[in-house]
Amino acid sequence: MEKVNRYISFELLFAILFIVAFSLPWLDMGLVKIVGWDIPDIQKKVTKVTNFFSRNKESVYTTYVVYMIPVLSIMSALFWIALKKKTSRIFLLMDGILAFIVSLNLFYKIPKYGSGIYLLCATSILTIIYLIIVSRRKTEIIDEPVIETPPDGIDEELE
């Protein structure tokens, strides 16, 4: 059985980086810097104004899906600390996929990107790659042949 240091791992590092990405500026226009935590509120205000003049009525609450990224990070970190490795990695994979989709969407919609979007995109890509490598490594280890013969000293002790 492998020993797991639950306080020093890539899983915790990625979870912390997702939360740090939310605290860095996502929109950087010189004097105006908007962090990730403020994006849903600003989008909600803009959507209310544009819905007033538009025929396509969008939901103002769909932007709050962005908050799922730090929530999934926190849940992944808590499961990792509780030594639920598989559950933690599943939450981290969902977090990485969602963060990648959100970061691509933000690259498309926001005029001047801040460092938070770059960190969010890089962390999501690295998380997905890391989890794919870890899952493949575990399946290779399981496929190794099992040794059927007992060690030399055990036969003499049984008699």
Structure description:
The protein has 159 residues and is mainly alpha-helical. It has one domain (11-141). It is built from six helices and two strands, in the order H-E-E-H-H-H-H-H. A two-stranded antiparallel ribbon has the order 1-2. Helix 1 runs parallel beside helix 4 (85-109) and helix 4 runs antiparallel to helix 5 (115-142). The two termini are 29 Å apart.
SSE layout:
Layout: H1 10-23, E1 25-29, E2 32-35, H2 39-53, H3 68-81, H4 85-109, H5 115-142, H6 152-158
Antiparallel strand pairs: 1-2
Helix pairs in contact: 1-3, 1-4, 1-5, 3-4, 4-5
What number of domains? 1
Multimeric state: single chain
In whole angstroms, how far apart are the ends?
A: 29 Å
Major sheet details: 2 strands, antiparallel
The backbone outline, from C-alpha atoms, is elongated
The H-and-E topology, N to C, reads as HEEHHHHH
